[in-house]
Design goal:
Layout (H helix, E strand, L loop, with lengths): L6 H6 L4 E3 L6 E6 L2 E9 L6 E8 L5 H16 L4 H17 L2 H6 L1 H4 L3 H14 L13 H9 L5 H20 L27 H22 L10 H11 L3 H6 L5 E2 L4 E4 L2 E5 L6 E5 L6 E4 L2 H14 L16 H14 L9 H13 L4 H8 L4 H4 L7 H12 L2
Antiparallel strand pairs: 1-2, 2-3, 3-4, 5-6, 6-9, 7-8
Helix pairs in contact: 6-8, 9-13, 10-12, 10-14
């Protein structure tokens, strides 16, 4: 029997299906979990019979269901299929969910990015852009990026580096088809002071540091009860080799004994490769900052230091491991470095990376050409290397003095 569906008829319905006499296809059906409203129709798209759910009685009223049924009937009359539209909306929602910054970083981004680069970028993005992680990437605007960059509390160079991580991720997201375009083209880098002096060891500071290392060695020997050996621990050889090779801290800690060719006097700084620690045979992927392998000649000082250190320790794998023979972490080195620097009275005047700057500055003072300095230090561009031309007052005074006799 055909009836008009009302609140009363739904409440009292005993049959399995109640059909409406005003809106064709509008029905209420009794199920174990309750009474549900549907709009039943023949799809103008597929030609098949469809049942479009409108809602559950108690959660929506009969009038609300009736209004929804009329809207669905209107869609069908104009050649649309409500179920197909619902499916497309679900697909779009799922697509948006998959197109979030977090989903892309943890998925396809890692498949086309070196592991260490991806690790660093992901750490920076999660730390600085946490509120954007679960946003669709298409919703991240240039305005938001500019606002973040302009409010960055640190040095402009730091803000630019972090934003470059996001720039790289969004650029790869465009290439992968996750977003149509990146808003980064509208975001200008913060202006950096290119003439800002870098910190390096003057000859006076270097003498102070060596004295501080002497004090540190005495402290370590007392602490560990040592009486033999040239070195109290790895800090002195690590520091001296850093000054005479310009290697980054991470490159020194990744260096293996077989990377050093004493016969030809060359250290190979590996661009990309697997380094196993020799203890548990787990592999850690390591690399230079530029991903390029480079070759650094050994001078007499670094040759002697490395020979003596390896002879003393008997190491055959990593040259500067931690106490367990595994790759040392930054904290393991920094604790020792801060102690020696404090003993030298150089706190606040130079950090460990300043040893690398010392190497570059000394080469510039010796008038080594920029291309050679670039190759030895592994810089990607001469613009980075050129900063060492501006660090030494002595170099400037020498240039002006020579001008007088030209």
């Amino acid at each position: 029997m055909i009836k008009k569906i009302t609140e009363s008829s739904v409440s009292k319905m005993s049959e399995k299906t109640l059909r409406d006499n005003e809106i064709r296809g509008f029905s209420c059906q009794q199920k174990k979990t309750g009474k549900f409203f549907y709009y039943e129709y023949k799809s103008p798209v597929t030609g098949t019979n469809r049942k479009h759910p409108l809602g559950r009685h108690g959660e929506i009223t009969v009038e609300q269901a009736r209004t929804m049924a009329r809207a669905s009937a209107g869609e069908v009359a104009t050649g649309n299929d409500p179920q197909e539209q619902k499916r497309e909306r679900r697909k779009e929602v799922e697509k948006q969910r998959q197109n979030t910054l977090r989903a892309f970083m943890e998925g396809d981004y890692r498949s086309v990015t070196p592991e260490e680069t991806a690790d660093v970028a992901q750490k920076n993005i999660k730390r600085h852009f946490s509120k954007w992680l679960d946003k669709p990437m298409s919703h991240i605007t240039a305005f938001e990026m500019k606002k973040w960059l302009n409010n960055y509390p640190g040095a402009p160079s730091g803000g630019n580096r972090i934003m470059n991580d996001l720039r790289g991720i969004l650029t790869k997201a465009v290439a992968a088809g996750y977003i149509d375009k990146t808003p980064m083209s509208e975001v200008k880098r913060l202006k950096e002071d290119k003439s800002k002096k870098i910190k390096y060891l003057t000859r006076e500071y270097e003498q102070q540091l060596m004295a501080g290392l002497d004090e540190y060695d005495v402290y370590r020997r007392k602490l560990d009860g040592q009486h033999n050996g040239t070195f109290a621990d790895l800090l002195r050889p690590l520091v001296i080799v850093a000054i005479h090779t310009g290697m980054r801290k991470g490159e020194l800690l990744n260096m293996k004994v077989n990377d050093i060719d004493f016969a030809s006097g060359i250290i190979t700084v590996v661009g990309m490769g697997d380094h196993s620690n020799g203890q548990n045979h787990q592999k850690k992927k390591t690399r230079t900052k530029s991903l390029q392998t480079r070759y650094i000649p050994l001078n007499d000082i670094s040759t002697t230091i490395l020979n003596d250190w390896i002879d003393q320790t008997g190491y055959t794998n990593l040259v500067f491991p931690n106490n367990s023979g595994q790759r040392a972490c930054d904290k393991f080195i920094d604790r020792r470095w801060y102690k020696a620097r404090e003993a030298a009275g150089l706190t606040g005047k130079i950090d460990f990376h300043g040893l690398r700057h010392t190497f570059g500055t000394r080469l510039a003072e010796l008038r080594v050409d920029l291309v050679t300095i670039q190759e030895l230090m592994g810089h990607e561009s001469l613009d980075i290397t050129a900063k060492y031309l501006h660090t030494s007052p002595e170099r400037k005074h020498l240039a002006i003095s020579e001008l007088a006799g030209y």
